[in-house]
Design brief:
Elements: H1 2-12, E1 32-34, E2 37-43, H2 51-54, E3 69-73, H3 84-87, E4 92-99, E5 112-117, E6 120-121, E7 123-128, E8 131-137, E9 143-146, H4 148-151, E10 158-165, E11 176-182, E12 185-190, E13 199-200, E14 204-209, E15 213-224, E16 227-237, E17 243-249, E18 255-259, E19 263-268, E20 287-294, E21 298-305, E22 310-312, E23 317-319, E24 322-323, E25 326-330, H5 344-357, E26 361-363, H6 371-380, E27 383-387, H7 401-418, E28 424-431, H8 440-454, E29 460-464, E30 480-483, H9 498-513, E31 517-521, H10 540-557, E32 562-567, H11 600-616
Length: 629
């Protein structure tokens, strides 16, 4: 009983936002219309970048304001045209799309009509038929607005205008600064090593719900012996009196537990747990939580549910009470032409490559990825460290109250969106901040405690590259995540220092904090096809030897307190020109090229990861990878 009371208390915690952000799904009561495709597009090239607002471009068709071009959505706009000024453009750009709304959606029967933007980088303002409906700050999380009242006045015409500004300041996430070397010329200075792609990066949708609707659902899972527990709570909007039916259904369509309460605990006999890829013969098992709201009308929403637990000891990371070792990658949402635009063929290809590698995990470096990617992780059993866009926090002014307030709000949005994904096992609140600065201690203490209050069921970390004794935020994390590039940025070309420095790093961090450690980044650039023997920097051979040296050190510590290794990076990715003279058309630390072709290091990593899976997993004999292949 005490166990259940504690978990019910967890359901009382939650995001202080005033509404939910359930992923739009078609059900018997809900419809979804994608607005992907070609939009009209115009960049505001005026000297102050503000002409669009001064002349109210949103009040009429965008083409009446001046020349427009076709722009695909979802996609970054930077690499679509042959115009270098657009690739490096800083300021407001304008998108427009005219759509037909089905008459039944605006028939006046109480149906809600919602416009949802999956991601707009960075700041955005949205109008429908010239009426402002919402605005949002932050480039990687969804936002939405109910637009039924605007559209019902003229149901045959729905003109959607979205203005997007990619300018970063010291108080944004990620932060940046604008340099103005001349009138009408802007340079964005950043402290992160990836291209600041911009635009409508994920789907824009219209969806409907009844007037009385399921606004949010939270689930927390546990198990004891062969019995699973799904603690749930449903939030309802638009009705003060209603009834409810909650049904948990297995993969075969059989109901395994039901309830008629708005919140409660569902008990599942002979539970099938959610297991990571290569840790069990049936990874990624998902139930379906079918929620049915009965008010003036009926609303139905279905949420995939994986039953699993996550715990951390002083030396282990446990999933379902078994030690879990992260052997995975860091990634970027990055590809030719489309930039950060969501692309299903690329997503499926990447998951096939992850499984080919034998990778069981990745970190969403350095921002939240698309919801569809997390859904794939849920289904395939790929474990996720879910990271917010807190990258490049290097200026002491970015530790001020305004920055902290925005950072806390971003974590609210992130936890609200991703709290129900079983694949998400840990929150990361930042990557490589200047955590040795005096304000960093209180900043990260506040941020981590806030995140734990939002979700007490998952550990919280941030990724550090600071010296172990000077890191002000490390005392507050649950897992120490460390980035280091020995023989690359430090002692360049000297492979023999890796083992000594890495073992010293591990021993120092663990002796000070007594917490499990993940090597969250390591690696070396390699230009595909560049070879040298003996190995030299930037060759495929040198990249392999760096990885091999790191792996030897990992093997000495992973049976003690090192609980994971995440290569930097899965694939090559684009960076800004001039950001670093060591970047040759992007960062080349990928074990795959940007076009997803393997370098020599990919085969080395594949052999290691499958060997680790054979050693630490619970696999039937026929799935074991023969390392000699």
């Amino acid at each position: 009983m005490f166990r259940l009371l504690c978990l019910l208390t967890v359901l009382g915690c939650g995001c202080p936002l005033d509404s939910g952000m359930l992923f739009p799904r078609e059900t018997s009561s809900r419809e979804v219309k994608e607005l992907n495709g070609l939009w009209k597009f115009r960049a505001d090239m005026s000297p102050n970048r503000n002409q669009g607002f001064e002349r109210a471009w949103y009040k009429a068709r965008l083409e009446e304001s001046g020349p427009v071009v076709d722009m695909p959505v979802p996609a970054s706009y930077n690499d679509i045209t042959q115009d270098s000024s657009l690739r490096d453009f800083i300021g407001w750009v304008w998108y427009e799309r005219e759509v037909l709304v089905p008459a039944r959606w605006v028939a006046g029967d109480g149906t809600r009509l919602v416009l949802r933007v999956g991601s707009a980088h960075y700041r955005s303002v949205v109008w429908v038929n010239g009426v402002k409906v919402t605005e949002h700050e932050g480039g990687h999380l969804p936002f939405e607005a109910e637009i039924g009242s605007v559209v019902r006045g003229d149901p045959t015409a729905c003109r959607i205008t979205i203005a997007v500004n990619n300018t970063l300041t010291l108080e944004t996430l990620p932060p940046g600064m604008i340099h103005v070397p001349g009138s009408g010329f802007f340079v964005q200075n950043i402290n992160f090593d990836f291209f600041n792609y911009a635009g409508l990066h994920r789907s824009v949708l219209l969806y409907t719900t009844p007037g009385a609707y399921i606004d949010d659902v939270t689930v927390v899972t546990d198990f004891l012996d062969s019995t699973g527990f799904v603690k749930y709570k449903v939030w309802v909007q638009g009705a003060s009196t209603f009834s409810m039916k909650v049904d948990l259904v297995d993969k075969d369509g059989r109901s395994v537990a039901t309830s008629s309460e708005q919140a409660g605990v569902l008990k599942v006999a002979d539970v099938k747990l959610w297991w990571p890829y290569l840790m069990h013969e049936s990874p990624g098992y998902l139930y379906s939580l079918e929620v049915r709201l009965l008010a003036a009308s009926e609303d139905v929403y279905t949420l995939p549910v994986g039953i699993r637990t996550v715990n951390v000891s002083s030396s282990q990371f446990l999933i379902n009470n078994r030690p879990f070792y992260f052997h995975g990658v860091n990634k970027h949402e990055d590809y030719d032409v489309r930039g950060k635009g969501f692309d299903w063929p690329l997503v499926v290809k990447d998951f096939n490559l992850l499984k080919w590698l034998g990778a069981n995990s990745f970190r969403t470096s350095h921002y939240p990825y698309a919801e569809e990617i997390l859904q794939m992780c849920d289904r395939h059993g790929i474990v996720v460290i879910d990271e917010c866009p807190g990258v490049g926090i290097k200026d002491i002014r970015s530790f001020g109250n305004a920055s902290l307030k925005h950072h806390l709000f971003v974590m609210d949005e992130l936890v609200r969106r991703d709290k129900n994904h079983p694949s998400v096992v840990m929150w990361s609140v930042a990557n490589e901040p200047a955590s040795e600065m005096p304000p960093a201690g209180l900043y990260f203490k506040t941020l981590i405690e806030h995140t734990k209050a939002l979700d007490p069921t998952r550990p919280v970390t941030y990724v550090t590259s600071s010296n172990y004794g000077r890191d002000k935020g490390a005392p507050y994390v649950d897992v120490v995540c460390v980035n280091s590039y020995f023989s690359w940025y430090h002692d360049s070309g000297h492979l023999d220092v890796i083992g000594i420095q890495l073992n010293t790093q591990f021993d120092n961090w663990y002796s000070l904090y007594r917490k499990p450690i993940i090597q969250s980044e390591y690696g070396a650039d390699a230009v595909a096809g560049l070879h040298s023997d003996p190995p030299m920097m930037f060759t495929e051979e040198y990249q392999k030897e760096v990885l091999r040296s790191y792996h030897s050190a990992f093997d000495q510590k992973r049976k003690q307190y090192v609980v994971g290794e995440l290569i930097w990076n899965f694939a090559d990715f684009m960076t800004a020109q001039g950001s670093c003279v060591t970047r040759v058309v992007g960062n080349k630390k990928g074990v795959f090229t940007r076009q997803r072709q393997p370098k020599a290091a990919a085969f080395l990593l594949k052999e290691r990861y499958w060997a680790l899976a054979n050693e630490t997993g619970r696999l039937p004999p026929w799935t074991k990878y023969p390392c000699s292949q």
